Amino acid sequence: MPQLLATPVDRSPHGGIVLLTTLIGLMLLSSMVVTLQVRTQAAVQVLARLESRHVDAMATTAILRRLTARLDGNGPRPPLDGTVRQEIFAGRSFDVRLTDVEGLIDLYLAPEEVLALLPVPALQVIAMRESALATVPAGMRFLTINQTMARFGFDAATRQAIMPLVTQDARTGQINPALAPESIRAESRRTEAQDVASGQSATVAISRSPQP
């Protein structure tokens, strides 16, 4: 019968230490690979966002130039009543809304009957206006319409809802129904505080068109 020879087993503690060190090294290497992958993905996402913002900024500049040229008579004149139109830039579609300020509701000058066109009680708006303006020198206006709405006390949802309807740059507190946004145009024709002023300035809003 052949003699079976058992292979000696190395009981030295050094073998276990080497194996443990190797395993720890592999684990650390795996962790580094995962970390690098996560960081790479995050960097790609950041670059994509930066590129998107850069394209949006270039689109805004280009579209504003187009609108200016058309308002100067170089091409079809765009509507000034808040009608949303599409403009294409770099293969992307943008919603453009151009509104003559005389067709909007001036939050500083509008009387009660014009403020009543807003989806907020007119007397409430007047009270908010008086409270906000009592804290600043007479005749002063806040820098932007967004700041004005915030200082008057409109919450975020209301600011978003009334943004297409308001201004702080009109010459009077009256409204020109012919230039009013469609949502308030019919009602604005029933007010006595009407004006025919137009052509001095307009607000423009440019945003990426919703994806289907």
Q: Helices and strands in order, then pairings?
A:
Elements: H1 13-71, E1 81-89, E2 92-100, E3 105-106, H2 112-115, H3 122-133, H4 145-152, H5 156-162, E4 166-167, H6 182-188, E5 202-208
Parallel strand pairs: 3-4
Antiparallel strand pairs: 1-2, 2-5
Total of domains: 2
With strands numbered from the N-terminus, the spatial order across the biggest sheet is: 1-2-5
Note poorly predicted spans: 1-16
Helix fraction by DSSP (H/I, runs of at least 4): 40-55%
Number of helices: 6
SS-based class: alpha+beta
Mean pLDDT: 81
**Distance N to C terminus:** 83 Å
Transmembrane segments: 15-36
Organism: Loktanella atrilutea
Protein name: General secretion pathway protein K
Region (Disordered): 183-212
Give keywords.
2 domains, alpha+beta, three-stranded antiparallel sheet, 14% strand, 6 helices, 212 residues, two-stranded parallel ribbon, membrane, disordered N terminus
Give structural notes.
This protein is α+β, with helices and mostly antiparallel strands. The protein folds into 2 domains: 15-77; 81-208, no CATH class. Helices cover 46% and strands 14% of the residues. The protein is built from 6 helices and 5 strands. The chain has helices at 13-71, 112-115, 122-133, 145-152, 156-162, 182-188, and strands at residues 81-89, 92-100, 105-106, 166-167, 202-208. A 3-stranded antiparallel sheet has the order 1-2-5. Strands 3-4 form a two-stranded parallel sheet. A hairpin with a 2-residue loop joins strand 1 and strand 2. The longest helix has 59 residues, at 13-71. The protein is globular and about 75 Å long. The N and C termini lie far apart (83 Å). Mean pLDDT is 81; it is low at 1-16.
